């Protein structure tokens, strides 16, 4: 094997182990930077190691504890006191064989270890010869490799062939993912791997043994030269970041001093710096948002026993410092009004599996109650589950809703009061007038009794509607009824009224075998109101069709007429107090119908089109 002259200051790990193997010496090499050792076959056999490459600590643990301590002390002295050789006695941990371990600090920064059984070779005092007494030729070859002879000529290992380990080490250096360069004490570049050429944009093949400042101008790389000089003078490893303007590359540089000069490792961190800058900008934007919004953003563990993030507005909203919240997440629940705590806990547990929202009250300043709305949902990130959420102060919204409801109630009461007064005033005026006429003309009194009675009946009907509206839901008396029989009864009841207008009352009904549980009086009232409204809406000779459908879950009643229908504006106002399209109507019938349907836990809907009639559908659950 021939090592080119420009590489002659390096010592190849494979070559050293080859020489040691020729002599049958158990030996290994320690890479100080990677803290890994490479063993030859003899050391693998002596220590019963299966692998040839392992960590230094793993190799060290093959010896007894006292020996480990002595070896580490000797290695420390070797590195700190500038000594080239040292020796220490070790005992392996398996067979309790005693060895004299000798170590040599190689010129390439590596440490060579060899083991010699104490019985066959006595311990020497200071120096260490990595060869047996039977083969001085191999010893001289090793000394040449580790730098005892000057590099004035090509290095030859006659009669030897490249080993698998040698090829492996060469391949690793060439394929090393970071830039690697060797600079001697004369500031000459003696080696650079392909990655270093790629990162710097310099072809080192034409620049070997040129001065470093001839390859890289000092004024452009002043920061780099400062660190190189400091490492060379102090013999301490230097780490720093720099920027290569030629290739527009950000780099992380490690300068490691050796006996030959300095070894420079360069890692391309451009992409890392770009991601880091993007992350910082993203964090700044998020901080700008989080610091200037009243709502509180938070991130928690699914069990809510640990908070990962809470935005700054948390303290203003809850009156609790963020430090307290991080220290004890339960402090939030402790600040919630006691009746709402159970709902909040249940909602938080639900947020760990799906999106959920909850509203609750907290103790505000001055005993003022604040309403908080919390929304949260689960998120998976890098295989871990988190809950993200937001706290909103909805106190003002709640107060506005309450005010709006009270305003609507007041408006409804005012409107209904005016309607009641108007509806009752008309018949009362008629009654009063006819009574006055009867008092003045007793002979005519009998002529007005029928009119007075009709007006009284009208007042009674209005009062009954209001009584129905105020009738509580708790007064329901449920019974099993036959839906078809109940509808037939209502149609027979209203048939005389329909005949007067020559209106056809039709019934569509599927065969129904089961009964239905409801309150007959209220269901009768619903049907009467709906059918009467349909009859009133239809012109002479019209048609009103009632349909009954019952499924396993609900009963559906539908009343359809072919009257003039309603405009979208009129349809939207159905159910409002005293809104009606009838000439003498009060609108209370629709309100009563909706109230009864609600009491029976049902739903009512209206469909209508101007000129196309109206359909009212009532659905009641079974």
Automatic annotation (TrEMBL):
User: What EC number(s) does this enzyme carry?
Assistant: 2.7.13.3
Q: Which CDD domains match?
A: HATPase, HisKA, PAS
Report if keyword Phosphoprotein is assigned. Answer: yes
What are the alphabetically sorted keywords of the record?
Answer: ATP-binding, Kinase, Nucleotide-binding, Phosphoprotein, Transferase, Two-component regulatory system
Recorded superkingdom? Bacteria
Q: Where is the PAS domain?
A: 282-355
Q: Which Gene Ontology molecular function entries are recorded, alphabetically?
A: ATP binding; phosphorelay sensor kinase activity
Q: Which top class of enzyme applies to this chain?
A: transferase
Histidine kinase domain: residues covered: 419-622
Extract the PROSITE patterns matched here.
HIS_KIN, PAS
Catalyzes what? ATP + protein L-histidine = ADP + protein N-phospho-L-histidine
Name of the protein in its database record: histidine kinase
Q: Which gene encodes it?
A: kinA_2
């Amino acid at each position: 094997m021939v090592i080119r002259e420009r590489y002659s200051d390096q010592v190849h790990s494979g070559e050293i182990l080859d020489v040691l193997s020729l002599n049958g010496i158990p030996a290994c090499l320690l890479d100080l930077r990677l803290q890994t050792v490479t063993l030859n076959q003899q050391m693998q056999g002596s220590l019963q190691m299966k692998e040839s490459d392992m960590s230094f600590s793993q190799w060290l643990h093959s010896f007894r504890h006292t020996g480990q301590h002595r070896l580490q002390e000797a290695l420390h002295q070797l590195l700190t006191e500038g000594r080239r050789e040292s020796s220490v006695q070790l005992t392996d941990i398996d067979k309790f064989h005693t060895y004299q371990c000798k170590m040599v600090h190689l010129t390439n920064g590596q440490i060579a270890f060899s083991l010699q059984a104490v019985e066959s070779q006595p311990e020497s005092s200071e120096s260490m010869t990595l060869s047996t007494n039977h083969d001085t030729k191999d010893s001289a070859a090793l000394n040449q490799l580790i730098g005892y002879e000057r590099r004035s000529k090509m290095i030859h290992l006659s009669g030897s062939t490249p080993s698998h380990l040698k090829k492996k080490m060469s391949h690793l250096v060439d394929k090393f993912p970071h830039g690697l360069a060797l600079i001697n004490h004369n500031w000459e570049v003696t080696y650079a791997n392909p990655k270093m050429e790629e990162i710097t944009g310099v072809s080192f093949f034409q620049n070997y043994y040129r001065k470093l400042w001839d390859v890289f101008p000092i004024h452009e790389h002043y920061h780099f030269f400062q660190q190189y000089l400091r490492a060379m003078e102090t013999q301490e490893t230097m780490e720093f970041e720099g920027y290569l303007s030629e290739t527009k590359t950000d780099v992380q540089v490690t300068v490691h001093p050796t006996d030959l000069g300095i070894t420079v490792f360069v890692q391309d961190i451009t992409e890392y710096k770009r991601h880091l800058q993007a992350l910082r900008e993203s964090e700044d934007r998020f901080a700008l948002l989080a610091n200037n919004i009243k709502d509180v953003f938070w991130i928690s563990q699914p069990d809510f026993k640990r908070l990962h993030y809470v935005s700054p507005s948390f303290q203003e909203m809850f009156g609790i410092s963020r430090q307290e919240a991080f220290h004890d997440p339960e402090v939030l629940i402790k600040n919630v009004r006691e009746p709402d705590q159970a709902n909040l806990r249940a909602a938080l547990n639900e947020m760990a599996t799906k999106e959920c929202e909850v509203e609750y009250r907290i103790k505000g300043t001055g005993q003022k109650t604040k309403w908080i709305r919390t929304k949260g949902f689960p998120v998976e990130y890098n295989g871990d589950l988190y809950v993200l959420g937001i706290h909103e102060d909805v106190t003002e919204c709640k107060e506005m809703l309450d005010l709006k409801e009270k305003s609507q109630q007041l408006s409804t009461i005012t409107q209904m009061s005016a309607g009641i007064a108007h509806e009752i005033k008309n018949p009362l005026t008629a009654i009063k007038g006819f009574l006055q006429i009867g008092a003045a003309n007793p002979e005519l009194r009998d002529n007005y009794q029928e009119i007075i009675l009709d007006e009284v009946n009208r007042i009674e009907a209005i009062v009954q509607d209001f009584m129905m509206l105020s009738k509580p839901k708790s007064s329901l008396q449920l019974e099993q009824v036959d839906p078809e029989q109940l509808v037939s009864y209502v149609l027979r009841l209203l048939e005389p009224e329909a005949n007067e207008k020559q209106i056809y009352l039709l019934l569509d009904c599927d065969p129904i075998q089961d009964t239905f549980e409801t309150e007959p009086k209220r269901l009768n009232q619903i049907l009467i109101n709906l059918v009467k409204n349909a009859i009133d809406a239809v012109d002479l000779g019209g048609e009103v069709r009632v349909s009954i459908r019952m499924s396993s879950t609900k009963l559906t009643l539908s009343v359809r007429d072919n009257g003039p229908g309603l405009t979208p504006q009129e349809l939207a106002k159905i159910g409002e107090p005293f809104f009606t399209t009838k000439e003498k109507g009060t609108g209370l019938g629709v309100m009563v119908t909706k109230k009864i349907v609600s009491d029976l836990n049902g739903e009512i809907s209206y469909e209508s089109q101007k000129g196309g009639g109206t359909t009212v559908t009532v659905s009641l659950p079974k």
